[in-house]
Prior knowledge:
Distance between the termini: 51 Å
Shape: globular
CATH class: Mainly Alpha
Largest sheet: 2 strands, antiparallel
Mean pLDDT: 85
Strand order of the largest sheet: 1-2
Low-confidence stretches: 1-20
Number of helices: 22
CATH superfamily: Amino acid/polyamine transporter I
Order of helices and strands: HHHHEHHHHHEHHHHHHHHHHHHH
Helix content: 55-70%
Amino acid sequence: xxxxxxxxxxxxxxxxxxxxxxxxxxxxxxxxxxxxxxxxxxxxxxxxxxxxxxxxxxxxxxxxxxxxxxxxxxxxxxxxxxxxxxxxxxxxxxxxxxxxxxxxxxxxxxxxxxxxxxxxxxxxxxxxxxxxxxxxxxxxxxxxxxxxxxxxxxxxxxxxxxxxxxxxxxxxxxxxxxxxxxxxxxxxxxxxxxxxxxxxxxxxxxxxxxxxxxxxxxxxxxxxxxxxxxxxxxxxxxxxxxxxxxxxxxxxxxxxxxxxxxxxxxxxxxxxxxxxxxxxxxxxxxxxxxxxxxxxxxxxxxxxxxxxxxxxxxxxxxxxxxxxxxxxxxxxxxxxxxxxxxxxxxxxxxxxxxxxxxxxxxxxxxxxxxxxxxxxxxxxxxxxxxxxxxxxxxxxxxxxxxxxxxxxxxxxxxxxxxxxxxxxxxxxxxxxxxxxxxxxxxxxxxxxxxxxxxxxxxxxxxxxxxxxxxxxxxxxxxxxxxxxxxxxxxxxxxxxxxxxxxxxxxxxxxxx
Length: 512
């Protein structure tokens, strides 16, 4: 017979059990009417962030950089270390997402968590987030275009891959992704579900091929092999730069946060989506990283190739199999770009809803037919294309786009986490870290600052126009524009997230 449960124990157990609030009631309590359709289940919310992180796209895009900045030891053990740090960032963001499940996500929570100058904190967070998201959509589209050209050149050797053609292919990709996001949220949700299985099945196919087909693999001790081809004499500095491979991959998991207003039981499903996306990506990514490392044959030849991972596939598996696997990689990149644009659109919608963008009334309008912010979709696509256009004549311009993506996003992540860290009256949601919340937040902020500095330091020597790291300039331009605009007009009209009234008042404004 089980022991009787005392009333005191019952009350204590109830006190610690999370309570899932009604989605609409939570939104109304934050001062917003419901304008978007809630069609995203827990899996759909997870799928957004998992697809944006996209280990296949991230690893294949940055693997060559890691081969020259640290080599196998940093590619493998750096992945483990950085993934652990990103889990701290994700856990802190997830706790905040549970407390403030809105499309405004980072900028909204920054405005609510700030003790003073709420409008300014919210303003800078929103513009960093906007710049980072647009940069991510642009960078993913351009990366897909680059790999598409690599595939075409393998299939038809007479084809000449050029920067101009890469820009044109990127424009077509952005057009198709915008059209997909223009239709119903349900279509996007279906595509994101497909993308998860594409990533997982594609991962298995690539890993199994790299394990079973090559006649030779590197010895286990190869994971301790260190390489410093950065041009810098300091090996520690070269190794630290190699950590950027993992940092490049783990961006965009705020997508689950931005989809909160379209997610069922968002106070628990949005934070769980963030954590699951990071955790599963960390494990699956390590498997893919090991498979690529042990399949390397000619290290120097692959490291100096235009697309090192593609060269590894050709050396280990032959051209035919390499082309097939390259199609999987391209598909993963296209899915990644689609999810990135979806998240980007929701951030624009929410930021405009609070009057923080030029033409805000236009961009936060919702289609009466599809219940999606269609105009915001096309703004995201147009801004992404503008960032890609300099690639027509400049190879280094695209580096700045990637830098805007990573530095902009992670600094936007850091602001609300930092504000939560110093706020003693923070009211957590159903998903929370309990007494460890501040400790986790402190580690998260420290890591973001370290990784952001790494992204802005020189990454190759000698430093020339072709190797110069334009990240500080790109970040500076964004911050200067935001600052000038803030002091010129915005500080008098933008006070942070807007409340449309009392819960009963905004409930009457619901459009669905």
